[in-house]
């Protein structure tokens, strides 16, 4: 009798393992479909991606730093020129 019970438990465990695998496959498929739909939706709205935003923000920060450095050089040159003329 215990062999029959063990076999039933083994079959039940295999069935649960298979069901869990199938559920995980369905979950992964649903996630993929959701991400694809979300990407299509965001692309249709012309929303900037985070990576693009970060790249432009970094470029703007570098340009601002360069402008500050150039401004300081111009002010130094103007001061030097005015000292030579005065």
Automatic annotation (TrEMBL):
Origin superkingdom: Bacteria
Alphabetical keyword list: Coiled coil
InterPro entries recorded: UbiK
Coiled coil stretches, renumbered: 53-80
Record-given protein name: Accessory factor UbiK family protein
Organism whose genome encodes this protein: Aliirhizobium smilacinae
């Amino acid at each position: 009798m215990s062999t029959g019970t063990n076999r039933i438990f083994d079959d039940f465990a295999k069935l649960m393992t298979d069901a869990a695998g199938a559920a995980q496959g369905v979950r992964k498929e649903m996630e993929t479909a959701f991400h694809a739909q979300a990407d299509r939706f965001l692309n249709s709205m012309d929303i900037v991606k985070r990576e693009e935003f970060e790249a432009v923000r970094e470029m703007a920060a570098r340009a601002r730093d360069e402008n500050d450095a150039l401004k300081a050089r111009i002010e130094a040159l103007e001061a030097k020129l005015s000292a030579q003329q005065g």
